[in-house]
Amino acid sequence: xxxxxxxxxxxxxxxxxxxxxxxxxxxxxxxxxxxxxxxxxxxxxxxxxxxxxxxxxxxxxxxxxxxxxxxxxxxxxxxxxxxxxxxxxxxxxxxxxxxxxxxxxxxxxxxxxxxxxxxxxxxxxxxxxxxxxxxxxxxxxxxxxxxxxxxxxxxxxxxxxxxxxxxxxxxxxxxxxxxxxxxxxxxxxxxxxxxxxxxxxxxxxxxxxxxxxxxxxxxxxxxxxxxxxxxxxxxxxxxxxxxxxxxxxxxxxxxxxxxxxxxxxxxxxxxxxxxxxxxxxxxxxxxxxxxxxxxxxxxxxxxxxxxxxxxxxxxxxxxxxxxxxxxxxxxxxxxxxxxxxxxxxxxxxxxxxxxxxxxxxxxxxxxxxxxxxxx
Length: 375
Fold this sequence. Notes:
Elements: H1 2-6, H2 12-29, H3 36-39, E1 53-58, E2 70-76, H4 81-97, E3 102-108, H5 117-124, E4 131-135, H6 144-151, E5 160-164, E6 170-174, H7 181-189, H8 194-223, H9 227-240, H10 245-259, H11 262-274, H12 280-291, H13 298-314, H14 320-332, H15 336-349, H16 353-367
Parallel strand pairs: 2-3, 3-4
Antiparallel strand pairs: 1-4, 2-5, 5-6
């Protein structure tokens, strides 16, 4: 797949230095912008679909929604990193409101290996004490809950949570980490403004649909190397992403490099770098993008080297991949001896055998007075 090409775990060095491309795709596409958002039929204010559980893995089963209870149904999977991050927060909500009428259900969905679920819950221990259910796949390959809840609501990414009021209607849909205690309290008290929540959700859905259209235009333009069209689409995307300007700037950097305007790309990279001075990973990605241009020279090369130095300082000189980037920058600046010294240190620091082999190959290239290929 396209993601696999960008995010290849079999190639550790490529994995580390191309992560920004994956992050960019996720930032622009949100992992959720698709045509199905426009086709969604389930929204806030609608009656919650029935629970279709294949097995209750933990806690007392919930056969149907009761009128004296409020329910928080959160969709997750063991392979989902953000899900693992949100579980303790969800457990805090459960602990705080379980005696006030809130029932939390961790609804497993899209699980790749269902045998991992029970061991996962056991390992989480007191960080995951709420009810946990498996999806019913007896009649639907993807699962009943995956279709009647997630797909119906246009939710294509996890974790995703649905808050169901005492009237059996959905009061709130969103990422569990963004669910505020005040919202839970108001839904429990019956004072939550569901109409406003529904209007906001509809607006978000419309924005997502437009984002899907623009993202498609952007992707096609980038693939076809139509840089001006890509830039125009990106400008429209920026208007819809007030909190995603860093990702937009990174995408614009790609456009400038595609055009061959390395000086402008270096200038933009320096701006992005200045806003993330302590972020070694971001600094490394920026430097690598510039340094992957084999004919980089002059001010642009100096900027790439400066950013690589900044990345190494932020990492305390202990990150093999970052040292590899700095070694490349140093070699391209003409200091072969220093580049070899840095690359040797990178090889020594590498713990992963595949990574060590790649770094050693780069070291051998430097010793032969050859610039290693960026890919």
